[in-house]
Each structure stands twice: as structure tokens, then as C-alpha cells.
């Protein structure tokens, strides 16, 4: 008779129990619910494998987990090393690009500061010495920390600026710089001599000032001539070009237009930020996504007039060669100045002159691109008016300016054709077939 409470041994490694259901039921119970088999011995259901939950099983699982973690650690280390190599490579690329840009900037600056012939210097100094100008200093930063507890503004660097300039051959009247505060701080001074030494200092565009561990770049440039009411000589023109032009190419282009040399002067705003750039940076990097933009300062008003006159003459039938980026140079007048066609000179009108001139002018707005000069002239004639001169203002919003002989004629035209007048200016743009 079979005894039901007899212990059954697990099947041997080489065979199976005859009654599979009866043999595996106790195995499942032992694996699921007991640390040890009946009798107090560890039960290995598969021969060499320890029973689930036994001490040997736990040790083996811990060993396997350790091997898995070690494998993961090696993988993480490999991935981390790969990332570090990639970051190191990127950092190396950035350093190489930065070093290359710095080297190219230095080369361009040397090209910009190239020495000229004695005849060229004589011509520059002759005009520059008779120019009414001021030297203007500024900083991009509002203030610069000079210690852990103190920051200096531009005016605080005045003694260092005067000393640096004096050591480089540039002295100022009264050994002083005057503070002027507008949108930011400016220091202005009147140079004792306007010679090649000052010209070269201005041509670099900046002076380095060091105080202990603090290094700051101070901008130095001629004071802006486009300020209304200023009495500074009109030596400046606005420069605009969609292509990069090297310092040598710019000098060659200026020579072709009758100039001897010019300073590259930074605007006060670039990339929509209040900042100035070095002359080399102005030339090498586009001020916007579309163009390189800065000012050109010439040694004398006569030279600026000559360059602008020749530019206007050449621009009427201008050659644009594909391998000549200087062919796309555009020159414009600075603010609050005009080109006097009779005197062929850049002029700054006084308030009285400006009011008298404007009293004879009327503006015509809404002039579309298909409207020709003859259409506008005929429109005035139909209304009974004879403007002395009509000029188009080309830009985003195209308009025209009509100049009359007298103030009374201009007033009559506004009263009749103006916004509140009984008539409106209309254009017949229909062409006969």
C-alpha cells in the first residue's frame, strides 16, 4: 500500500518522475512558499541550481546583479568617454576657430594700419590739420568691476586715458577730457596736434587700459559730425556694402574716387544691441544679415566732397564686376546733412536756413513705384502749379518732395492739394497701346 505522507525526492538529473503532476506539485509549493525543503535541507529543483529563495539562490542572484551592474557601468563609462571625446573635439574646434578668427583679425588690423608714403602722409596731414574735430571716447559697458567691491564708469578712467594717449604722442588741450552724457557716457577732448600720430591712433579705433587684473577696451574715434547744430567739419560719409571688402580693397576704392585715406568709424549700435566694434570687426563682420555698415571719416571736408562727388558721377554708369566686391559700395550722407548740387559740397543747414528751405517744399506721400516724374509734374500742372524741382525719396514708403520758388506758392499748393484741400493729386499712369 502506498503511503501518502512519505517524502518524495525530486526527479534526478537524468530522468523524470512517472507521475509528473504529483512530482511537480510539491516542487511548485516549495519554490513558491518555502525557503527550505522538508527536512531542513536546501532543495535544488534542477539539480545544481539552488532553490528559489534559498541563501545560495540569493547569493547567486546578487552575483548576477553585480555582473549586470558592472556591465552597465562599463557601457556608461564607454558612452561617457565617447561623449567626452566629442565634447573635447567640439571644444578643440571652437578653440581652433577662435584662434583662426583672432589671427585673421590681427592680419586685417596690420593691413589696415599699413604705413603710407611720405607724399600720402603730407596730403593727409595738410587737410587733417585744418579740420575742426574732436576726439570721442566711449565704452560698451556701463561700468567695469575693478575690484571685488568697486566698479568704474568711463569717467573714472579719465586719468588712465589721458596718460595712455600722452605716452603714444597724443595730447589734449588743458590735459582734460569733458564728460558728456546722452544715451551713455562720452569723454571728448580737443587734440593739441592733428597729425599722422593721431590719425594712426584713431585708425586702430580703440586703446587698451589695464588696472591690476582689470583690462578694458576704450573706443576712440572722431566725434560724430551728423549732430544738428554742430560746428564740426563735415568729413564723414555713411558706408554700406553687401559684400566684404578688405582694408586694402577699401583703400584702393577710396583712391579711385579721389581720396587719400579714411578712418573706419563704428556705429553705436550693431545687431540691435548698443555696442561699438573695432574697425576691423566692422569690415569683417556684417552689421546685419544683409550688409556691412559703418562710417568713413576723411582727413578734410574737401576730400569728403571730392569722394562723394566722384561716387555720384560713377554710380550713374557703374560697373559691377563679379570679382570686385568694392563695386557694390554705396556711400550716403550722414544725418542732418545735405548735398549742395551748386557748390558740390556736403552742407549742414542752420535752423534758419532749414526753415526757409522747408517753407518752399511740400511732401507728396503714397507715390507708388510705377509713378514716373513726368506723371507727378503733369498732376501739378493740371492743378495750376509749376514746381521748380521734384525729387523722389526712394525707400520702404516711397514719397516725393516738390520745391517751389516761393513760400506762398508752396502754401497755396498745400491748401488746395493737401489732406484737407478740395483737390487731390492724381496720376495718369495709363500708357497708350
From TrEMBL:
It comes from Phytophthora rubi. It comes from the Eukaryota. SUPFAM superfamilies: RNA-binding domain, RBD. Transmembrane segments: none annotated. One of its GO terms (molecular function) is nucleic acid binding. Residues 1-37, 91-103 have a biased composition (Basic and acidic residues). This is RRM domain-containing protein. Coiled coil: none annotated. Residues 1-108 are annotated as: Disordered.
